[in-house]
């Protein structure tokens, strides 16, 4: 991924491919890529922080859009590198650019553009809390003003 | 399944095997059988009834034990017959005997003994409500006294 | 969906939402929508036909692109209507427009644009067989010439 | 787990619980425990070794029996410890005792007895290869003679 002022730095997250991830065609079943992207986002945000946000503030993130391109099959026993960067589009919405790289790959096997919105338990759009924006904003070189 | 005074009649529930169900070995990935057994139980109990029980009474069923034997592989595009019968062991617990039959099978491909307990949202053991026991008990020829 | 000369008629496929489909936020976990779309496509194409295509010709379909918008949460015990239509973009590629409608919904809860390509077991792009194109083409009013 | 001459030492494998693992009751959906047990076994055996065994010898492992007890719910954001030990029952069969421990748990949340058999691609019972038995046997203090 090329550096881009708008985006956070790139985070790397490894995912090992198990039996459960494949289908009879021999490669990863495509909806599972969305699972790996979500796991990687949860590591960027912090699973503990997500759990606290839900329990204390009744807030969570929902995927509003996922646009994914599958360029290459990913195989059993691969340990892939999930690369993730994001930016705040507004107080309500984050935009994520994510890629899956196979071991020794020269280009990404899967690429995705994903948009997440912040919602309360009644599934109404809500602004992210200022502490959350500040904490996630520490990933950025420049100050974020939303 | 042989008739048995203790058990309800046998319920039949079809499940089609899709890409998502298989793994690279070419057959159904074994934890998925537990999903089909659960779907079949939800049809016996009634999904609407389960949803109401959760929303109105804060009660749900949790699998306490699942003992499963996989005798034969199940393949993509199979439409299997999930056979289910159960009995009330107490006000807290139901016991289920479930089988998966492939098309044209002469014996079950998978067999399972499953125990479910009734719990509240704090995951404390709770008795099933009398109307629930009565409604599920209609499946039995004989009266149930718990 | 509006009629469109390019597209097949709209196919309807019901999917019941089970425990396995939801996550702790209370609604369907978003990657599962891609599973329902795939199940619906398998019913349009025919699971038996897909199995035969793989076993006899070594051909299968791979999702190249999936662009999905999640407008509304889908809940446990819902029986949703998956609406599907498609067209042949070339001998290699089909394009699918798919939607998920909740019971009594006035607009789709989820919409998707999905592209599938035909591949051999070595994951090389291959043209669909003429009989397959002819059989799938029966869904169209007008002749297809690829 | 208590030491036992028959068993290998206990292996520890961490699993983080993500959105995908839970259902609307708020805890892990029970069939997913079988996935974590399988991941842990794949780490004991070695995913690369499993991939090579399949590609070079046409051999794989199938779960013949899984008997699982769920004592306690496991929650989102938990990092559980999957504890695994096993022994060779014969050249064809391994027996696994596995447990899931929550952070700060004083007893296992889930326990399981799992039996795996070695099969070829036609799903016929086959003996494990001598090098495989030898390599896995290195986990044991005592020599294994099958």
Rg result of chain A: 16 Å
Order of helices and strands of chain A: EHHEEEEH
Q: For the largest beta sheet of chain A, what order do the strands appear in spatially?
A: 1-3-4-5-2
The SS-based structural class of chain A is: alpha+beta
CATH superfamily of chain A: Hotdog Thioesterase
Percent helix range of chain A:
10-25%
State the CATH topology of chain A. Thiol Ester Dehydrase, Chain A
Average pLDDT rating of chain A? 93
**For the largest interface in this structure, which chains are involved and how many residues does each contribute?**
A-C, 25 and 25 residues
What is the name of the CATH architecture of chain A?
Roll
In the predicted model, the low-confidence regions of chain A spanning at least 5 consecutive residues are none
CATH class of chain A: Alpha Beta
Overall geometry of chain A comes to globular
Q: What's the topology here?
A:
Four copies of one chain form a homotetramer.
Chain A: E1 11-16, H1 31-45, H2 47-57, E2 59-70, E3 79-88, E4 93-101, E5 110-120, H3 130-137
Antiparallel strand pairs in A: 1-3, 2-5, 3-4, 4-5
Protein name (chains A, B, C, D): Thioesterase superfamily protein
Keywords (chains A, B, C, D): Hydrolase
Family (chains A, B, C, D): Belongs to the 4-hydroxybenzoyl-CoA thioesterase family.
Kindly describe this structure.
The structure is a homotetramer of 146-residue chains. By secondary structure, the first copy, chain A, is an alpha+beta fold. The first copy, chain A, has a single domain (3-137), classed as Hotdog Thioesterase (Thiol Ester Dehydrase, Chain A, Roll), CATH 3.10.129.10. Helix content of chain A is 23%, strand content 33%. In chain A, strands 1-3-4-5-2 form a five-stranded antiparallel beta sheet, with helices on one face. The longest helix of chain A has 15 residues, at 31-45. Chain A is globular and about 45 Å long. The model of chain A has no long low-confidence stretch (mean pLDDT 93). Chains A, B, C, D: InterPro entries: HB-CoA_thioesterase_AS (IPR008272), HotDog_dom_sf (IPR029069), YbgC/YbaW (IPR006684). Chains A, B, C, D: Belongs to the 4-hydroxybenzoyl-CoA thioesterase family. Chains A, B, C, D: Keywords: Hydrolase. Chains A, B, C, D: GO terms for molecular function: hydrolase activity.
